[in-house]
Structure formats: structure tokens, C-alpha cells
């Protein structure tokens, strides 16, 4: 099976998935949509076919005026009822039903994104599916519901019109059928080309999305102003546009010719030309059709043709929809590799020890080994510093300890229990962490510190945590204190924080959360020396018997650790206290002396 074409059962399964979703979360909307679509077509059939045939035949065969007037009156009353239902549907049922579904699908996608393995973000196919799903899922829901609406309408038209043809002129059905089959074949080919074109465009669009991010996001604004790399991206932007234009041109020529043959030969010529001649002949020459039948048969053939055309586009639309829905399903159904054991147990409340045994790790199976045979035991209250060159695996090691990734081999045990046997959320909640690329959220300072909506009201605890992290004086200057909003996303009065201030807020999380273990990845990289000194002091006091693992490139800070791990190429190559490592005069001593000598040079020249 080609990747851009699904079997009929797969198409049905995928479209059924969305319909089931709609029925589960917005049943009233879906049912009303189907029933109302059928009613609309019944109303049109009565008004445009039955009424017109009746009026023409009445004139031709001399039916009484009062009978005709009564029939017209009843039809007008029925139309009035349909108009009332029309308002109810479009003003209330549809907008409410749609909103409910959009909200639900977005929530499901966000929940899935949050619970998915971090490793999945490294997989570009999965990440693309996620970006697409987040942007387009609601359009696919709309498209599926529109298809269902069209099916209901078309099936109603087909049943009423076919019954009418069978009753009045069976031969007319042959004309319609031939046109239908030929149009179907052409539209399937056209849609396949359309999908191929969009897939090719999507690939290019990824580049455009990156460029858009680059020019819009504040993150890149400074570098773009300070360096001339922007010229490379302007060039990329114009190249991408040229490539996209080329793709559109290549495919649209084929699409034009296919559309022309379909519209002209298989629709207009057969139904608008040949069938009209046939009806006129049967009415005027043979006299087997009444005037009312001739007019309404022509009218019905247009309607039947139109709806069969809808059906042809519908089948291909369902086909196309299916391709996209499958992306959505594969995103939602993606199983995590990092799973919680069925009989997982709660995390102990006391830290006794953490051991890492023969740990190895690769981000992807074909990728390089990032960690190699790492062995480590951490005792209660121990302060461990991890140092090493860029890319030596320090952050990766802490990600494994936090169980954001699972080791490729080897194991990690907390109090002797393998961490994959512990309840996952519970385990992560019992670790306080500040990441190298920590993020603050568009929420109040309180919420940013406790990171738990329910606990955000404990002002005393939050104030204390912020003071310990060195944010105290800034906090005093804020009129709304801990209730101040961070960023202006949701609040015009929100504040923007400097890099160091933001880092202090992130660090405050550690003081506000009673955990078993503290992990800090370059916690003081943005802090001034006074703030760093203050933080180190407070951290030592506050951690008490909680072990602290911290990564730092400032070796003056790591000196105070009980144990320093020196990493190189994914291995711990040296470990011991600062004095011990200086004594063995290895890589750590070399690095420390280099930093110290630089410091002395700077001090000496100032
Ligand atoms: N998500 C990822 N996917 C693939 N490779 C990754 C990923 N994250 C990190 N790496 C690679 O793993 C190696 C170790 O990265 P890691 O961030 O652990 O190093 P580090 O010692 O913390 O470096 P730094 O001092 O620069 O922060 C690097 O070569 C990096 O390119």
C-alpha cells in the first residue's frame, strides 16, 4: 500500500475514530447535525420537486385551484418550521458543539504531550506529528463532521431522487450513474496529487516555521541584531519560497487538466447535454412524460448529479482526512517506552541512598554512547558537584537520575529499590530540580515557585523560599508581592525579570518543595558573585540531610562540595573532595588551576 493512500477499511476506521470522539464528547451536536441535514434535503425535495410537479401537472390536467392552494399552504408552513430549526442549529447547537470538541481535543493533545517520553521530542517524525496535530486537529474534526453532514444530505437526496426516477423515468438513472463513476476515478487521482503536493510543501514549510520562530521570538532577537547571521536566513527564506512555488506549479498543471476533463466531459456533456435532449424527446416527440415530470426530472438530475459529485469529493475527502487523522491517532496512541511498572510502589519518605550501577546511555539507538559504565553511590546529606567539559554527559546523567530518560543498560536504585519499580510521578515529585535552561511560566510568582496550583496560596512558605534564593529585595519592591504576574502574557501589569532574577525564582522552587533529593544544573550561572555566595550558604543549611547534586562550571563553587565528580566522554574519570583531587593532580586540578590563574590575571590587571 502506498503511504499516501489508505485502504477503504482504514479510511472508515480513521473517520469513525473522529465520529466516535464527537459522539462521546458532543453527542447532541452530532445527532442534531445529522438529523437537520436530512430534514433540509427533505424540505428542498418537497418544495422543488413534488410541489413543482404537482403545480405543472395541475395546470396540464386541470386540478381544482383550492386543492393546489391547500398544498402550497402546507408546504409554506413546513418551510417555516425548517427556518426556526435553522436558526436554533446555526446560532446555538453548532457553535457550542464545535467549541466543546475543540476544547476537548486540545486538552487531550496537551495531556498527551505532557505525559509523552522526553525522548519522543528528539524524534523529528513524532515531533512533526505533534506540531501538526496541535495545529490542525480541530480542522480535521470539522472536516469529518462536515463529511458526515454531507453524507446525510446526499443520502437523503439520493434516496428521494432515485425513488423519483424509478417512479417516473428509470433510464435517467443510467446517465447519472455513468457520469458518477467517471468523475469518481478522476477526483481520486486529483486528490492523490493534492496530498503529494501538500506533503512536499509541508517539508519546506518546516523550514519556514523555523524561520518564522527565528524572526518573531524574543529568544533570538539579541543575536540577530548583534551578528550578521540574519542574511543567511533571509537567503534561506527566499530559497524556500522559490522551492514552494516550484512545487505548486509542478502539481497544479496536472490538476488543471484532470479537473477540466472531469468537469467538461464527464459532468456537463453527459448530464447537461445528452440527458436534456433525451427528456425533451420523450416529452415532445414520444409524449410519455408530463410537463411537470419533464421539468422536475431535469431538476432532479441536476440535484442527483450534484450530490453524487459531493459523494465523489466526499470519498476522496475521507481518504485525505484519513491520512491526517492517522497522524493524530499515531500521536495519541504512541506508547511510552518509559513506563511505570504495574505493581509500582510508592516512593519512600526518607532518603537512605541512591546508587547508579554500570549505567550506559544513548539518546537514540544509532547515536553515540553518551554515558559509559557510570557507577556512583550517594549518601544522605552528601553534596556532590559534577564538573567536566561541555558535552561530557553531566546533564544527561542528572536526567537519568530524574527518570526523564531510562538508561540503555545498568540501573539506578533509590534506597535499594530500582527506580523503575517506583511510582513515576511520585518519584519525580520527590526530586527538586533547577534546570540549566529553566523556564518561568506566565503565572504568578507564587505559582512559579510552588509549581502546584493547589498549594499556591501558602504565601508565607513562598516568601521564605524566595528570600532564601536571594529574591527577597526584589520581592519587597513588588506592590503585589508573591501575587505579581510573571510576563505580560495574561496580565498587562506582569513583570519581566532579568536572567539572574529569573534564576532565583527557579531556585526558590527547591526551597518550597519538601523532597528527597536536590538536583541543580548550573544553578548560579546567571547570578552575581554575592548572590552566588549567599545561595551556596543557604543551600548547605537548607538541604540538611537531603543530598544535593549540582553541576557547575565555576570551580570556586564546587570546592565546597563533599565530593566532586570529574566527567569526561560520559565517564566519571576522577572523584573525591577538592583537596583529594588537587593532590592527585589530574584533569580536575588542571581545570581548577586554569580557572584560578585566569581569575588571578583578571584580579591582577584590574
Ligand atoms: N536530546 C538529545 N538528543 C541527542 N543528543 C543529545 C541530546 N541532549 C544532549 N545530547 C548530546 O549528549 C552529549 C552530552 O550532553 P550533556 O548535555 O549531557 O552534556 P553536559 O556535560 O551537560 O554539557 P554542558 O556542560 O555543555 O552543559 C552531547 O554531546 C549532546 O550533544
From TrEMBL:
Residues 354-594 form the ABC transporter domain. Its main location: membrane. SMART domains: AAA. Keywords: ATP-binding, Membrane, Nucleotide-binding, Transmembrane, Transmembrane helix. It holds the Pfam family ABC_tran. GO terms for molecular function: ATP binding. It is a multi-pass membrane protein. The chain crosses the membrane at residues 29-56, 68-90, 150-167, 173-190, 264-285. It is found in: Cell membrane. Residues 50-320 form the ABC transmembrane type-1 domain. The keyword Transmembrane helix applies. PANTHER family: ATP-BINDING CASSETTE SUB-FAMILY B, ATP-BINDING CASSETTE SUB-FAMILY B MEMBER 6. This is ABC transporter ATP-binding protein.
Amino acid at each position: 500500500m502506498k503511504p499516501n493512500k489508505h485502504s477503504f477499511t482504514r479510511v472508515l476506521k480513521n473517520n469513525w475514530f473522529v465520529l466516535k470522539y464527537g459522539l462521546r464528547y458532543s453527542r447532541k451536536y452530532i445527532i442534531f447535525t445529522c438529523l437537520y441535514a436530512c430534514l433540509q434535503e427533505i424540505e428542498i425535495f418537497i418544495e422543488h420537486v413534488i410541489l413543482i410537479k404537482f403545480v405543472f401537472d395541475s395546470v396540464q390536467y386541470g386540478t381544482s385551484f383550492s386543492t393546489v392552494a391547500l398544498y402550497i399552504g402546507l408546504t409554506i408552513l413546513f418551510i417555516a418550521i425548517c427556518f426556526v430549526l435553522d436558526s436554533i442549529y446555526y446560532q446555538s447547537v453548532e457553535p457550542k458543539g464545535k467549541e466543546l470538541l475543540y476544547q476537548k481535543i486540545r486538552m487531550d493533545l496537551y495531556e498527551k504531550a505532557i505525559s509523552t517520553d522526553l525522548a519522543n521530542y528528539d524524534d523529528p517524525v513524532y515531533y512533526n506529528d505533534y506540531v501538526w496535530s496541535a495545529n490542525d486537529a480541530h480542522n480535521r474534526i470539522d472536516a469529518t463532521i462536515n463529511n458526515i453532514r454531507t453524507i446525510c444530505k446526499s443520502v437523503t437526496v439520493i434516496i428521494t431522487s432515485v425513488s423519483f426516477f424509478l417512479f417516473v423515468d428509470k433510464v435517467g438513472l443510467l446517465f447519472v450513474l455513468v457520469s458518477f463513476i467517471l468523475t469518481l476515478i478522476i477526483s481520486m487521482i486529483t486528490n492523490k496529487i493534492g496530498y503529494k503536493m501538500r506533503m512536499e510543501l509541508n517539508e519546506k514549510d518546516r523550514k519556514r516555521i523555523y524561520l518564522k520562530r527565528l524572526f518573531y521570538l524574543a529568544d533570538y532577537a539579541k543575536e540577530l541584531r548583534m551578528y550578521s547571521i540574519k542574511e543567511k536566513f533571509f537567503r534561506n527564506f527566499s530559497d524556500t519560497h522559490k522551492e514552494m512555488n516550484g512545487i505548486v506549479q509542478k502539481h497544479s498543471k496536472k490538476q488543471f487538466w484532470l479537473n477540466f476533463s472531469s468537469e467538461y466531459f464527464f459532468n456537463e456533456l453527459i448530464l447537461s447535454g445528452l440527458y436534456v435532449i433525451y427528456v425533451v424527446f420523450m416529452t415532445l416527440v414520444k409524449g410519455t412524460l408530463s410537463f411537470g415530470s419533464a421539468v422536475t426530472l431535469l431538476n432532479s438530475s441536476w440535484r442527483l448529479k450534484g450530490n453524487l459529485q459531493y459523494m465523489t469529493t466526499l470519498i476522496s475527502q475521507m481518504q485525505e482526512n484519513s491520512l491526517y487523522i492517522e497522524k493524530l491517532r499515531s500521536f495519541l496512541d504512541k506508547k511510552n517506552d518509559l513506563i511505570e511498572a504495574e505493581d509500582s510502589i510508592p516512593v519512600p519518605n526518607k532518603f537512605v541512598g541512591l546508587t547508579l550501577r554500570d549505567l550506559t546511555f544513548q539518546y537514540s539507538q544509532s547515536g553515540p554512547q553518551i554515558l559509559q559504565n557510570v557507577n556512583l553511590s550517594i549518601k544522605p546529606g552528601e553534596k556532590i558537584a559534577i564538573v567536566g567539559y561541555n558535552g561530557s554527559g553531566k546533564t544527561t546523567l542528572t536526567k537519568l537520575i530524574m527518570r526523564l530518560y531510562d538508561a540503555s543498560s545498568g540501573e539506578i536504585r533509590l534506597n535499594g529499590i530500582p527506580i523503575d519499580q517506583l511510582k513515576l510521578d511520585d518519584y519525580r515529585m520527590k526530586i527538586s530540580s533547577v534546570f540549566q535552561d529553566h523556564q518561568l511560566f506566565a503565572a504568578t510568582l507564587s505559582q512559579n515557585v510552588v509549581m502546584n496550583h493547589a498549594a499556591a496560596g501558602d504565601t508565607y512558605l513562598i516568601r521564605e523560599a524566595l528570600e532564601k534564593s536571594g529574591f527577597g529585595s526584589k520581592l519587597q519592591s513588588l506592590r503585589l508581592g508573591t501575587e505579581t504576574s510573571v510576563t505580560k502574557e495574561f496580565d498587562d501589569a506582569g513583570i519581566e525579570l532579568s536572567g539572574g532574577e529569573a534564576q532565583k525564582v527557579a531556585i526558590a522552587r527547591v526551597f518550597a518543595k519538601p523532597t528527597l533529593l536536590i538536583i541543580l544544573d548550573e544553578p548560579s550561572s546567571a547570578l552575581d558573585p554575592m548572590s552566588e555566595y549567599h545561595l551556596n550558604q543557604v543551600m548547605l543549611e537548607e538541604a540538611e540531610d537531603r543530598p544535593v547534586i549540582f553541576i557547575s562550571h565555576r570551580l570556586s563553587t564546587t570546592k565546597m562540595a563533599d565530593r566532586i565528580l570529574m566527567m569526561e566522554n560520559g565517564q566519571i574519570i576522577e572523584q573525591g573532595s577538592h583537596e583529594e583531587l588537587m593532590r592527585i593532580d589530574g584533569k580536575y586540578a588542571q581545570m581548577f588551576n586554569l580557572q584560578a590563574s585566569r581569575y588571578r590575571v583578571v584580579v591582577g590587571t584590574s
